[in-house]
Amino acid sequence: MSKLEDYRKTELPLPETYVAWQVFGAGFENLGREGKPQTLPLRPPKPDEVLLRVDALGLCLSDIKIINQGSGHPRLRGRDLATDPTVLGHEAAVTVVSVGDRWREQFKCGDRFIVQADIYFHGLGYAFGYLIPGGMAQYTYLDERALAGDEGCYLLPVKPETGYSESALAEPWACVEMSYNLHDRTVPGDARNRMLIMTDDDPADYLEANPHATVAPRQIEGLDDELYDDVVITQPTPEIVNELAPRMKKGGAMFLLGKPEKDGPVSLDIGRIHYENLRFYGGADGIEGLDEIHKRHDLMPGGSALFIGAGGPMGQMHVQRSLEIAQGPQVVAVTDLDRSRLDHIEARFGELAASKGIELKTFAPEQFGSQAEMDEAVRAVSPKGFSDVVVLAPVPALVQSAMGFAADNGFVNVFAGLGIGSVAQIRLSDLCRGIKIVGSSGSRISDLRKVLKMVEAGELNTNLSVAAIGGLNAAREGLEGVKAARFPGKTVIYPHILDLPLMGLDEIPERLPEIKDKLTAQGAWTKDAEAELLERHLNEA
Q: 195-294: CATH homologous superfamily?
């Protein structure tokens, strides 16, 4: 029997110790001790636990946020990492290797899973890789918080034939998928909602469905200081929108009917749009018209899509998705500061785009004499504006720029997380011509399940996202590489190849010639390359 077959069957005895990268506080100096991971005792699982072997782990920019903030990270809820360290890593493919008494009917050794990181138990968040020690280790334990949480079991089963890296990367892909599955409320809520109608017209049509709404003329003077779920404004002005936008409750919606009485900038908290699901709807004279415009949630079929700052791992996922979905855009434009990352996108996805008749264009500042010249070239790709603009860099000014690139009734997807309080100056006329700004954070278990199903059906190749690999001892260097944007895609760590150096896929022909023929013709990672790597280099099963 081969080394890999032994590994998959989990029949070999478990070791007495395992290696893990514990984090003891803020800063890379507190990741491990003296730049090295810890060796910990591998105990049997408690009755309410399962012991999981970590087979592959994707490194994420979110891990850097914990390193930057330490115990101050909001998901750690003040946990003192100095005395109670955790383990980073939430993009994990795992295998059950031992089962506590409570779970013997539900799990057996050899069962494979991926972990839904956003775990909720009795209404509280216990995210994997945050409060629950994650996958930057050879083994990890999960208890009832993950196995019998508020949404049931947060382990999703993986087929035996599915690759480790391709299943682990379903987690970041689920975050991408969720951003195109935001089924927003596009009409005012029911009578329980606190609603304000600002109009100089007869409000009867609005009051019929919301008889308890507050009605006021289109002026700020005399308005109370209440917070609102819904705000309806006819012929809005910048002053009114600026005054009322901060008074919207979490999940609130502002309906901007008709053309603005006058144009000008409005200050929108993009962080609240992203994290608190605020929405601003314009583009029609009536509520029903707004609903028709804004109920779309995915990329416009046959439309044009612009991805701003999309050279990094998550941006490339967005681009790949736009090229692979059944009814996607016909024009895809991509910008980034780094021309080499755009070259990587063209090399990796150019053939796919051509095979589907999709026009793929990439733009970097170094190609042009000025930013204005580059913007003009981008606009020329879709002269009437882009039906979808996705912002992948957390810069408020880019959101403002995205609005200028968007077509009437277009969508601006602010995927890059801007913190609450990140304000962008948006022209009121852009909102009133129907441009909808959306944003999302994380993913739901339904999104992860959908992505895993796509992977296992051969509809999505998450391995195209891999740009670098390494063993567990290289995980810290891998995270430093994530922070420095060293690689143009995801870094995947194999915890049971301890000493595999961190390397880009372009280095494999020289450094790992025994697996170079298992890569694709374009040099992409594959399940066969992974199997050959594990067969030759596994040093602990």
A: NAD(P)-binding Rossmann-like Domain (3.40.50.720)
